[in-house]
Design goal:
Blueprint: H1 3-8, E1 14-15, E2 21-23, H2 27-40, E3 44-48, H3 56-66, E4 73-79, H4 80-84, H5 95-103, E5 108-113, H6 120-125, H7 128-131, E6 141-144, E7 147-151, H8 157-161, E8 163-164, E9 167-170, H9 174-189, E10 192-194, E11 200-201, H10 214-235, E12 247-255, E13 260-261, H11 263-273, E14 277-283, H12 290-301, E15 310-315, H13 332-347, E16 353-358, E17 364-365, E18 369-374, E19 381-386, H14 392-396, E20 400-407, H15 410-423, E21 429-431, H16 434-437, H17 453-457
Parallel strand pairs: 3-4, 4-5, 8-17, 14-15, 15-16
Antiparallel strand pairs: 1-12, 2-9, 3-6, 5-10, 6-7, 7-9, 10-11, 12-13, 12-20, 14-18, 16-21, 18-19, 19-20
Helix pairs in contact: 2-3, 3-5, 9-10, 11-12
């Protein structure tokens, strides 16, 4: 089946030309694109992030929004639990203070999403970081008029300096900009609104994730998102013949806590219907769902396609953002290492699965993505970029979105492959084998707590 048809059956399809896509490979290029977009915007700025950081670079972004002389409509969506954690910081500037500054603009809306699971006495006695395990606003999107940046990076200083992630900028694609602007509007309507005074309010009790009846709130959330997606599928269905264009972008939404599943079934279907392909998969947090593991190993085992290769890249423990953290967070890198060991125990005899860890001194690794390349004379590249880490948490708990780019354009295929090679930089790669990870010098969980891994998989 044609890859364009395969993806467009599931989600909206938006054609574009290869020159409209700019791959923002490094943190500084990512930051400069955001700052330039804010300053050049005339009509609308839409930002979705886990949180707004507290550094000097974030101050500059907020300042640029406030000082934009065109007075564009500004929408900011972040996560309530993660954002309000910064209230205890002693810094002069916090993410919430940045939200307040934007909320004071006359044509702005600032909202903080809170999972419906975060409520009652449990919410009040649990440490903040444990509350975050119940579900987060995890989408990472920036809209500047008709330009869109889809990324896995938050609006925080480390992502602008020393945390390797991915970000793609689509220039002049109004349908994609409208899709994300409208999607975020729906989530904003179901979230806490930040007032100019810094208070959190909702428009009604039924949209209050903590006070509303839990089932009623979930039903309302699901119905509004489903209505939006149904309308978007019709509105953005490509009206021209599939062979009339070489590239298209397909936005997907994953909100498993409310029964919204687009990414997971799409990935599964692609991996089952397009078996004769090469796969590259990267994540900062190695915890793929069982379905993804099975699909990747099935391709590696196909007797009819012995040349199919599966390349996997994940963060070394030292490149994990939780490395050397205090308390329970400090064991997170070892937990991901245990999951990698478990994966290798099932795939060690498959020579066409190649696993590497990324370690760059002074940097952390947060990049996630999936690349599929079909074989034959009409080779097609399918590349995913966005917020998902492809794990159980992304599938079941958080609000996620990513785009799939499908292209036969040779120039764009080369640029997409160049980004992948940028991530698989030999200077920072370390081949991983099962025997090597079992050495006593490597980070491991204590033997008596390894039994918790099945539970940890569900929340990581």
């Amino acid at each position: 089946m044609d890859p364009f048809d395969l993806v467009s059956e599931e989600v909206p399809s938006i054609p574009f030309e290869q020159k409209q896509l700019e791959i923002l490979a490094s943190p500084d290029v990512f930051y400069n694109a955001i700052e330039s977009g804010i300053k050049a915007t005339r009509r609308r700025i839409v930002l979705a992030t886990l949180y707004l950081g507290m550094g000097e670079l974030e101050k500059r972004l907020v300042k640029a929004i406030v000082e934009n002389k065109n007075n564009p409509r500004v929408t900011l969506l972040a996560d309530a639990i993660r954002s309000t954690r910064t209230l205890k910081a002693t810094a002069e500037f916090s993410g919430v203070q940045g939200c307040e500054r934007i909320a004071r603009l006359p044509s702005s809306r600032v909202a903080l999403y809170q999972s419906h699971r975060v409520r009652g006495w449990m919410h009040r006695i649990l440490p903040e970081r444990l509350n975050e395990l119940l579900g987060l606003q995890h989408m990472k999107v920036c809209v500047f008029d008709d330009d869109v940046i889809v990324s896995g990076a938050n609006l925080s200083e480390e992502y602008f300096k020393t945390r390797q992630d991915r970000a793609w900028l689509f220039r002049g694609v109004p349908a994609l900009a409208d899709f994300y602007s409208n999607l975020i509007d729906v989530v904003v309507s179901l979230s806490y609104q930040v007032t100019p005074e810094g208070e959190l309010k909702t428009t009604s009790k039924e949209t209050d994730p903590e006070l509303a009846d839990k089932k009623a709130y979930c039903d309302l959330f699901r119905s509004r998102i489903e209505a939006f997606l149904t309308e978007a599928k019709t509105k953005y269905a490509t009206a021209i013949a599939p062979r009339a264009y070489d590239s298209a972008v397909f936005p997907t939404v994953q909100m498993g806590a409310y029964g919204i599943q687009q990414e997971v079934p799409l990935v599964q279907r692609l991996l089952h219907v397009l078996p004769a392909c090469d796969i590259a998969f990267t994540t900062g947090y190695f915890c793929p769902t069982q379905e993804l593991e099975v699909a990747m190993t099935a391709i590696a085992r196909l007797p009819g396609h012995p040349g199919s290769q599966v390349h996997i890249l994940c963060a070394a423990p030292q490149a994990n953002s939780f490395f050397n953290s205090k308390g329970l967070a400090g064991v997170i890198p070892a937990a991901y290492r245990e999951m990698l060991i478990s994966f290798l125990q099932h795939t060690a005899r498959l020579p066409n699965i190649h696993v590497h860890e990324y370690f760059r001194p002074g940097w952390t690794f947060h990049a996630k993505g999936l690349w599929l390349t079909t074989r034959g004379t009409a080779a097609t590249t399918l590349a995913f970029v966005g917020s998902s880490n492809y794990g159980y948490r992304s599938r079941n708990l958080d609000l996620e979105s990513q785009v799939v780019v499908v292209t036969r354009d040779v120039k764009l295929q080369r640029r997409i492959e160049a980004e992948r090679r940028w991530l698989w930089d030999a200077r920072y790669l370390h081949p991983v084998t099962l025997q090597g990870l079992l050495l006593p010098t490597e980070p491991r969980f204590k033997w008596f707590i390894r039994w918790t891994l099945p539970f940890l998989r569900r929340i990581m």
